[in-house]
Write a structure and sequence with these properties.
Elements (H helix, E strand, L loop, with lengths): L1 E3 L2 H12 L4 H10 L5 H9 L1 H13 L5 E3 L28 E4 L2 E9 L3 E6 L4 H12 L3 E2 L2 E2 L6 E2 L7 E4 L6 H14 L10 E5 L5 E4 L8 H4 L8 E8 L5 E2 L2 E3 L4 E3 L5 E6 L13 E3 L2 E3 L2 E9 L13
Antiparallel strand pairs: 1-2, 3-4, 4-5, 5-16, 6-9, 7-8, 9-10, 10-19, 11-17, 12-16, 12-19, 13-18, 14-15, 14-17
Length: about 300
Amino acid sequence: MEITISRDLAVWLDRQLAAGVALQDIRRALLLRGAGSEAVVERLCANLLDRGARLRDALHADQCPPLPTAAASPPPPDPEATPTFVPCHRLPVTGNHVDIDGCRVDVLLRVESPHAVVVDGILDAKQCHQLIASARGHLQPARVIDGKHGGECFDERRSSELVSYQRAETPWIDAIERRIAALTGIPLEHGEGLQVMRYGVGAEYQPHFDHFRLSEPGEAAHLAHGGQRTATLVMYLNDVDDGGETVFPEAGVAVTPRRGRAVYFAYADAEGNCDTRAFHGGAPVRRGEKWIATKWFRQRPHAVVPASCQN
């Protein structure tokens, strides 16, 4: 049985062939973008090399060639059909570096989808040491929001320890938060309090979303304290001997933790719609330990709430 693929998918495939992209890389991209089951993708890729000319001929004729697939399989969705998601809190840094409080913050990496930017120098060594020293004697096992009942619960996907701070809890935390505001352009009042986390050997945070899922009543209740989460800043407080990367599976990106480095990613638009490509996680630490400080941002000013209401 044959199906007809969309013209946009044919355009995308033709571009990959014309650019000489390896077949295994095309296959990986199709699987990541959900272009059908593994069997469908394998069948499609098996026909690509000898059908490249026919794809181009069909494009010139403004037609779409049929591709064989299993009878029970639906047509694969177009990898480029979804429009670029535009979050409301894109990082307003256009050059390769920005000066904040007389210190240079370098831009190491930009990713368009999801919107993510890796910077170096957001915190200096003294600030990193201060955050670690302040948290070390007060760590508690990390919890997550109980999506069904609200409040918090333990989850085997998250195996770190943490300490939560209120906004401006100390003068030096206030200085860090003002530095973050200078980088992101997001008003201080839209930020949740900092969380400092420690990951020992084997500890991880399996891939998840930071935004609140409206389908889960326990998460939706948090919208009353400033609306949807719009962006996240993860700041690395130490060098990790091995492992502990922040990974974005949908984008194929992994950020190596280094002291003073940070990854910022935004995932909600002005209406509160969220980008599912911001699915991310913390890879297991293989040697040493990982310390991070995390800051979440909201649509509206975020009321100061007890730590039990924070994720």
